Structure to design on (810 residues):
């Protein structure tokens, strides 16, 4: 193998930032990049899409931004729509969390997903595949051959299986096939690199093993990225916690405000995972935080602007920043808030619902219990509260309305 | 459900002798027998054949004798040649104990097997099927659906899996499919009853579960038979221990002599599992042994005659009994033994090989080390021993030759 040139070491260090690269570390990535360059063979980067959950948030973009970096270097993103997996669902019919989808549902979800990822990567240059095309063709013998490559003990090292097994929760045998199918995909699309969250360590490394078992000489490299916490800084960003989740479809003001709400401990990680800054700039953010060399609020303002600009353009980000600063200087109340004309006294929950500040009365009750609803600056204590006069209504941190008669 | 009539209770008690009947016990068998009779629907009795090991011994006949009893009552034996399973072998190619067979090998072994079982059951009235006909047609989705019916924890209750897992020995995922395939066979052939050794408890009960999961209202009954020990009374009868294994192709003299060599503790079990005696006669054997009411040797002579007669006819059994008694009265040397003409001094191992008393020199050495070779009544101490004079050569208990010049 030729000596690895500095150019590719630097490429690998930039693109591999924050990644755990398995099994060989950053030098193996540099080697792949150089080999690809010297032989005019773009690397094939695998991106698996789960078509049962098409809604994307910033957590999903962590991997997609890496793909974009590869794309900019001339490599090829191979998107796998998990049609086979989705159409299987839970074949026992017991699980509600894994409903079987029809081909039409898969296609519709894939279209939504495609539109959303287009906000990050150049979808005109993506190779789109569907694993139903090869998995549904596997015969009885093919399936057994695939399964013969992994032992039960190996499978049980997977975190979720180990946990469920030790807790006495059932694991149906067919579930072993989900990681096997994902791994087999790597063989079918001839992947050179597979990204995943750290919770995908088992599945992505299994892809390597299956490629090797099926005769591939240089199996895929695995690049694991840390999971991104939501704006509370504690739990992994997820649609299950909408108040801490920054969705790609959030308005500019919401996006900006949510980024501003992250704890200082997350600033560096968000810079690392959600911006394209060069490594030396990232290091400066790190050092500034370390040495208290600047106000964390300023670092967050810059971060919020970078992120918001990406999805709403410079103008959108500028306006969102202006609105945010107004809210703060204006005792927390934005300049431009909707008015609500009160015809007669109204229950607070009904009012919040009508303003679409909440999705359900249950959500409203929880918000009130948590002290998250204010009228004229006073916390609303009971869900039976009646709004009878004019005043400013606030729900959560960023939703306001002016009640008028 | 109609009241069960005495006639069918008696049938069930005879045919269910020595069996563990799951899940309902002997009354459930009686119920099935009565329902079948009243509705003129013969019961379908499953018999699975492993085409990788076509050689049969008395251990295999324990189940086959039961099948014959069902056959005599007008029920239907459905033989499943495990073509799918055999052609899979070990798909990883790592196991030498499970070689993949070609279709031709499967067919040839099935023919041998068929000829051997014809010694016990009426093969002209057997429905012959091959599970390759349905298993090879299972699609990707079918396989996952099948696998979804069992959990890992259930699978790990299977004795051999539990043992290997706890010992850290690998279990490949595809191995989970062997019991699943066997169980699925029960659904495909619509089995009413499946027999098995006690080591088949998991697999046979899984057949019930799979039938139920696939919509069968009255799933199969499971009848478990104890494993038959070889003539040493310790280890399960198996070709791996040829000296304790009574093969269906053994000569009448060998068969008779081997039965006579069983320990007294096995007499009752052999009567129960290897003869058609009525339950009251079996009880008499039990009582005679219990009360020392007769010489165990006489019980064994009767047993050896019954068993030998089954495979070699009455005349064959009579002659074998006569020969056995001659050996005993003649200080252990039979009347009619082959002569070997000694031309020059000969090494004992070469001589044993030429007489076909042993298959290899290794076997000869072990026999000599165990004191199993005698010349003129004296144990041969060394494999280098030279036979130089006339005399009686004995190898093991029943092989003799007269060395002459």
């Amino acid at each position: 193998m030729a000596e690895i040139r500095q150019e590719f070491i630097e490429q690998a260090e930039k693109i591999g930032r924050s990644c755990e690269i398995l099994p060989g570390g950053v030098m193996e990535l540099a080697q792949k990049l150089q080999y690809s360059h010297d032989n005019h063979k773009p690397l094939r980067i695998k991106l698996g899409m789960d078509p049962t959950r098409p809604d994307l948030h910033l957590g999903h973009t962590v991997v997609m931004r890496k793909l974009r970096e590869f794309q900019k270097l001339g490599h090829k993103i191979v998107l796998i729509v998990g049609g086979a997996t989705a159409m299987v669902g839970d074949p026992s019919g017991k699980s509600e969390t894994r409903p079987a989808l029809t081909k039409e549902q898969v296609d519709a979800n894939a279209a939504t997903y495609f539109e959303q990822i287009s906000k990050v990567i150049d979808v005109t240059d993506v190779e789109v595949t569907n694993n139903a095309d090869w998995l549904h063709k596997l015969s009885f013998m093919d399936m057994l051959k695939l399964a013969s490559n992994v032992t039960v003990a190996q499978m049980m090292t997977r975190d979720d299986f180990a946990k469920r097994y030790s807790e006495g929760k059932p694991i149906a045998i067919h579930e072993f096939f989900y990681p096997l199918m994902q791994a087999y995909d790597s063989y079918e699309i001839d992947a050179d690199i597979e990204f995943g969250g750290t919770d995908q360590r088992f599945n992505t490394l299994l892809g390597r093993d299956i490629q090797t078992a099926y005769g591939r000489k240089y199996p895929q490299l695995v690049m694991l990225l840390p999971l991104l916490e939501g704006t509370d800084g504690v739990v992994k960003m997820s649609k299950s916690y909408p108040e801490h989740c920054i969705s790609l479809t959030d308005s500019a003001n919401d996006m900006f405000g949510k980024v501003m709400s992250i704890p200082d401990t997350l600033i560096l990680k968000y810079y690392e995972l959600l911006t394209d800054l060069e490594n030396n700039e990232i290091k400066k953010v790190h050092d500034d935080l370390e040495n208290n060399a600047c106000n964390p609020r300023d670092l967050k303002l810059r971060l919020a602007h970078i992120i918001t600009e990406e999805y709403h353009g410079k103008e959108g980000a500028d306006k969102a920043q202006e609105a945010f600063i107004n809210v703060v200087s204006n005792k927390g109340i934005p300049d431009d808030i909707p008015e609500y004309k009160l015809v007669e006294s109204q229950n607070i929950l009904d009012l919040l619902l009508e303003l679409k500040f909440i999705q359900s009365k249950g959500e409203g009750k929880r918000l009130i219990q948590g002290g998250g609803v204010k009228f004229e600056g006073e916390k609303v204590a009971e869900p039976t509260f009646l709004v009878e006069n004019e005043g400013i209504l606030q729900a959560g941190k960023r939703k306001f309305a002016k009640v008028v008669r």
